[in-house]
């Protein structure tokens, strides 16, 4: 028996299940897609068994421009996100800033809003005839500027900022004041103390860069939404989409672009992993002392607070106000010689559309809600199981490989995954002999679950690892079986996290665009696809109204989930996660 | 409250993690109602042994029997919840989402007793450990000592024949440790359960145990009563780990059975008779001196050694001194009701009956 066969035979069943899920949902579709870059004949997409011609086709003209733009824009976005994220995290967690909680909450809100929604909002502000025009401004120049690199960078930085902020905040929270104290008592001034201490959170900074870069380079929403009716700034994800949807479609060129997107995310992740070897973001220990905040004097405190609040308000407020304002106007023109015309026509249009609008939003909203429910449930079950498997003490080779794989899989663009699904689940050996899932709801659910699992598993790993194994052992030795131990010990401790994870997956699924745009079942368009249809027509205001409604549903789902948890969960469950409850 | 204590047998127990052997061929037997303490340094395998017994770890070899029933063996592994035991964890392992009352009542959830009876049992236990007024609090609202009392009450609530203690006092301050140690000893013995308690603190071990097992590098080095371990350590490791004032080199001059006359290899060549040893005549040996075997006097007397006081510490009932002999050998923890100042020359008297003499080839590693 070879060593590999021996290892396979001794793989625990839970690892085998974990890997089967990952292979079916992610590895096989993505690998299939990437393979067609060099072997089109393998998938009946061309005459050659092996060719590199797709590479030369991809690295020229508009496609090359898209790839280059994606690379430099993502690097810029990641750098900006880390710099701004570090500044905001430090101000919120280490100073006596006014309104720190509101800033934290605003960034959470940004985390929920997909980039296509932000883009819709910004378009509704800067496009001639929209919000700024209502104030008498000529926005033609601004609009041209916005639909180029600057607009893309602003929107993608807005989208990446919450990730960066949350990761760096976690690093700063774990950085007890004893490190600064030690530097200060040994003669370091404030600045030297800071420069001494900041390298301790270097893994967090690099992690923030890696995730911001991956988010930016894999984004589809900005490129797709901006391209609706505009001479757009080309980005790789949209050129990939274009390669699939052009006539005739060119999967091989699309696969080369996908390869570039995936390969580009490897260096930041690799360096972050290298730096993280043997340690975690958390430097918390039983002896970590609570942080001491820098007490700014009244005037500097007021100036810093107002500046920070204004900055965050602009980031959140501009797109939101743009979308909301546009949704309440009567026609394509916001500004008329007779002033602003406020109306609910767009909202009426959403649910009772004229034929030209392309259908009501109620059906797509229901479809998206169903998808959200099932995807969130499936993702939660699988992600918890994987997180538990990954956080066992003394992890084996299987867990270590899965850990790195999931980290890399976070960066697989949704558009790549969806393209992989189209190709893999259309293969004759599956459709003729096993199951034909193409253009079915289960395939959409699988694609959305595949997109959610890597991120959710990694997010759940920390809270799952925090549930001390001793608590479960205590339940077992005091007479509880496996199920009772899980129900009475693990579930209560994770309940708040699970509710959050479910709600966030639900809302993300509601607004997901890249996967559903490629995989939706004809006649059953999800909300995001329908909204893009509105936006692609002359009825942009209806699209804005639909966007606002979808955002409201997302907020309602989170509010309802947390509200139900508050009402239904026992008091002890609700205490977990509150300050000091785990002490 | 009384219940039959469990009889426990470990047969050639072995646990390894890859190449690292944590437990190596350990066999011992705990009689019903006995309070057994496993004593050993960090990494000696004592926690592994406890976890194997609890069913949290699966042994790599050997077997475990509780009341004659194999619970872990080559082809059998009984889950922790089926082993009829309870455990007090080092970090308490109290469930943070449950009140004190519910934590303590957890093991009773599957019992046949009525809800009222279960509640009464919990209240009684909380009263016994002195925290009945904290019944509705959550663990994070308690001090470390109070949390450990909850853990103790939970273990007692299980009404099982075997209670395991995983260094339960190591996170507490000295005062609380002492009071809780007495409560553990009293309540566990009152309950009639057998107990297996692990610690690295020899004072705790001697105070609690009916029998002590000394572990090192995964092996059981010595097994006996506290008196046997203290008076007749089987090798230098046990002697050192169970508390020494210091060591001196010596030559065995005469041997009569297990008693010998030795000459210390100091410039005074002080002779001690009637020492415990298995060393042959003429052997080079080391004298292992317990703190209780040494005393200080101000004036020279026959058989004493001159020493210089290196340090003295007030202990309440007297003074503990550290002394140096000929500038080379240091003995510590030597009690005297009177204080000798640093730098003062004193006379050191050794009680031959309370020292252990072992040949040098033993004195390397256990």
Structure summarized in a few sentences:
The complex is a heterodimer of chains A (583) and B (366). Chain A has 583 residues and is mostly helical.
Approximate shape of chain A: globular
**Strand composition percent of chain A:** under 5%
Main pleated-sheet profile of chain A: none
Please provide the count of β strands of chain B.
21
In DSSP terms, counting alpha (H) and pi (I) runs of 4 or more, how many helices of chain A? 28
Name the CATH homologous superfamily of chain A.
Answer: MetI-like
Low-pLDDT regions of chain B? 362-366
Query: How many angstroms separate the termini of chain A?
Result: 50 Å
- Gyration radius of chain B, to the nearest Å? 24 Å
Interface with most residues: A-B, 27 and 32 residues
Q: How many strand segments of chain A? A: 0
What is the count of distinct domains of chain A?
A: 1
Structural class of chain A: mainly alpha
What does this structure look like?
The complex is a heterodimer of chains A (583) and B (366). With 583 residues, chain A is an all-alpha fold. Chain A has one domain (16-285, 292-576): MetI-like (MetI-like fold). Helices cover 72% and strands 0% of the residues of chain A. Chain A has 28 helices and no strands. Chain A has helices at residues 3-9, 13-35, 53-58, 61-94, 100-112, 115-126, 131-134, 140-146, 149-174, 177-185, 190-197, 202-218, 221-226, 236-245, 251-276, 298-327, 345-351, 362-390, 397-410, 414-424, 428-431, 441-466, 469-477, 482-511, 514-519, 527-536, 540-568, 571-575. In chain A, α4 packs parallel to α9, α5 (100-112) runs parallel beside α16 (298-327) and α20 crosses α22 (441-466). Chain B is α+β, with helices and mostly antiparallel strands. Chain B has helices at residues 46-54, 100-105, 115-128, 144-157, 174-191, 202-208, 226-231, 236-241; strands at residues 8-17, 20-30, 35-39, 61-66, 69-73, 76-77, 86-88, 162-166, 194-199, 211-216, 219-224, 246-256, 259-264, 271-277, 284-289, 294-297, 305-314, 319-325, 329-336, 345-350, 355-359. In chain B, the strands form four sheets. Chain B has a six-stranded mixed beta sheet with strand order 7-8-9-3-10-11, with helices on both faces. A five-stranded antiparallel beta sheet of chain B has the order 2-1-4-5-6, covered by helices on one side. In chain B, a hairpin with a 2-residue loop joins β1 (8-17) and β2 (20-30). Residues 362-366 of chain B have low confidence and may be disordered. The A-B interface holds A 394, 468, 470-471, 473-482, 488-489, 492-493, 570, 572-573, 575-576, 580-583 and B 17, 51, 54-56, 79-81, 83, 85-87, 89, 91, 93-99, 102, 106-107, 109-110, 138, 140, 154-155, 158, 164.
């Amino acid at each position: 028996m070879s060593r590999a066969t021996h290892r396979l035979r001794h793989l625990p069943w839970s690892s085998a299940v974990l890997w089967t899920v990952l292979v079916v949902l992610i590895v096989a579709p993505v690998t299939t897609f990437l393979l067609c870059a060099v072997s089109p004949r393998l998938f009946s997409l061309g005459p050659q068994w092996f060719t590199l011609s797709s590479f030369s086709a991809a690295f020229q003209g508009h496609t090359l421009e898209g790839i280059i733009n994606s690379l430099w824009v993502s690097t810029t976005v990641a750098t900006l996100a880390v710099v701004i994220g570090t500044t905001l995290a430090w101000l919120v967690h280490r100073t006596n800033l006014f309104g720190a909680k509101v800033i934290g909450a605003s960034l959470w809100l940004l985390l929920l809003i997909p980039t296509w929604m932000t883009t819709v909002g910004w378009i509704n502000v800067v496009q001639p005839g929209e919000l700024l025009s209502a104030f008498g401004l000529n926005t033609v120049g601004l609009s041209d500027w916005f639909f180029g690199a600057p607009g893309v960078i602003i929107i993608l930085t807005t989208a990446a900022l919450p990730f960066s902020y949350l990761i760096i905040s976690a690093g700063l929270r774990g950085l007890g004041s004893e490190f600064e104290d030690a530097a200060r008592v040994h003669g370091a001034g404030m600045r030297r103390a800071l420069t001494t201490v900041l390298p301790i959170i270097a893994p967090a900074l690099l992690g923030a860069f890696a995730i911001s870069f991956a988010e930016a380079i894999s984004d589809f929403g900005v490129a797709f939404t901006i391209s609706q009716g505009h001479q757009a700034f080309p980005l790789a994800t949209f050129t990939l989409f274009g390669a699939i949807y052009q006539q005739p479609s060119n999967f091989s060129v699309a696969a080369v672009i996908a390869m570039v997107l995936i390969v580009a995310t490897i260096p930041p992740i690799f360096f972050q992993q290298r730096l993280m070897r043997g340690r975690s973001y958390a430097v918390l220990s039983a002896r970590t002392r609570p942080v001491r905040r820098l007490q700014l004097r009244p005037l500097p405190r007021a100036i810093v607070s107002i500046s920070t609040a204004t900055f965050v308000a602009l980031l959140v407020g501009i797109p939101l106000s743009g979308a909301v304002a546009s949704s309440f106007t009567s026609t394509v023109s916001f500004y008329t010689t007779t002033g602003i015309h406020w109306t609910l026509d767009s909202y009426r249009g959403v649910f009772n559309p004229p034929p030209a609008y392309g259908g009501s939003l109620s059906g797509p909203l229901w479809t998206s809600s169903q998808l959200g429910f099932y995807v969130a449930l499936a993702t939660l079950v699988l992600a918890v199981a994987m997180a538990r498997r990954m956080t066992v003490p003394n992890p084996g080779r299987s867990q270590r490989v899965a850990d790195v794989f999931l980290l890399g899989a976070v960066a697989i663009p949704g558009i790549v995954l969806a393209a992989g699904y189209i190709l893999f689940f259309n293969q004759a050996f599956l459709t003729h002999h096993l199951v034909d899932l193409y253009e079915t709801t289960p395939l959409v659910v699988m694609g959305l679950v595949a997109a959610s699992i890597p991120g959710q598993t990694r997010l759940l790993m920390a809270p799952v690892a925090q549930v001390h194994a001793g608590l479960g052992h205590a339940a077992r030795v005091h007479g509880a079986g496996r199920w009772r131990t899980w129900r009475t010990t693990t579930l209560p401790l994770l309940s708040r996290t699970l509710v959050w994870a479910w709600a966030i997956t639900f809302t993300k699924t509601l607004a997901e665009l890249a996967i559903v745009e490629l995989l939706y079942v004809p006649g059953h368009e999800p909300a995001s696809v329908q909204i893009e249809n509105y936006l692609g027509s002359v009825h942009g205001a209806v699209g804005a109204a639909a966007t606002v409604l979808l955002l409201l549903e997302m907020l309602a789902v989170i509010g309802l989930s947390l509200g139900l948890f508050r009402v239904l969960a026992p008091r002890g469950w609700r205490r977990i996660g509150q300050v000091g409850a785990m002490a | 409250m009384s219940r039959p204590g469990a009889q426990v047998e470990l047969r050639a127990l072995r646990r390894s993690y890859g190449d690292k052997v944590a437990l190596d061929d350990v066999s011992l037997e705990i009689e019903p109602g006995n309070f057994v303490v496993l004593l050993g340094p960090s990494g000696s395998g004592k926690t592994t042994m406890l976890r194997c017994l609890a069913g949290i770890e699966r042994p790599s070899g050997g077997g475990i029997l509780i009341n004659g029933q194999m619970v872990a063996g080559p082809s059998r592994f009984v889950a922790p919840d089926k082993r009829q035991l309870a455990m007090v964890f080092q970090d308490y392992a109290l469930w943070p989402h449950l009140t004190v009352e519910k934590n303590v009542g957890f093991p009773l959830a599957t019992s046949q007793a009525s809800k009222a009876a279960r509640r009464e049992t919990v209240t009684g236990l909380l009263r016994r450990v002195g925290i009945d007024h904290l019944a509705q609090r959550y663990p994070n609202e308690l001090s470390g000592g109070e949390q450990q009392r909850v853990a103790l009450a939970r273990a007692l609530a299980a009404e099982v024949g075997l209670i395991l203690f995983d260094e339960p006092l190591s996170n507490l301050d000295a005062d609380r440790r002492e009071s809780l140690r007495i409560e553990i000893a009293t309540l566990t013995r009152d309950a009639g359960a057998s107990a297996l308690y692990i610690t690295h603190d020899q004072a705790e071990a001697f105070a609690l145990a009916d029998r002590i097992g000394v572990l090192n590098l995964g092996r059981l080095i010595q097994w006996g009563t506290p008196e046997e371990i203290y008076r007749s350590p089987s090798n230098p490791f046990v002697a050192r780990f169970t508390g020494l004032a210091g060591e001196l080199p010596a030559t065995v001059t005469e041997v009569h059975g297990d008693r010998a006359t030795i000459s210390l290899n100091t410039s005074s060549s002080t002779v001690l008779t009637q020492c415990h040893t298995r060393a042959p005549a003429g052997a080079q040996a080391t004298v292992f001196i317990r703190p209780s075997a040494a005393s200080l006097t101000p004036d020279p007397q026959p058989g004493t050694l001159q020493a210089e006081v290196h340090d003295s510490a007030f202990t309440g009932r007297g003074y503990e001194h550290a002394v140096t002999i000929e500038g080379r050998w240091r003995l510590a923890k030597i009690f005297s009701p009177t204080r000798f100042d640093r730098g003062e020359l004193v006379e050191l008297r050794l009680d031959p009956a309370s020292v252990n003499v072992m040949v040098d080839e033993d004195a390397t590693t256990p």
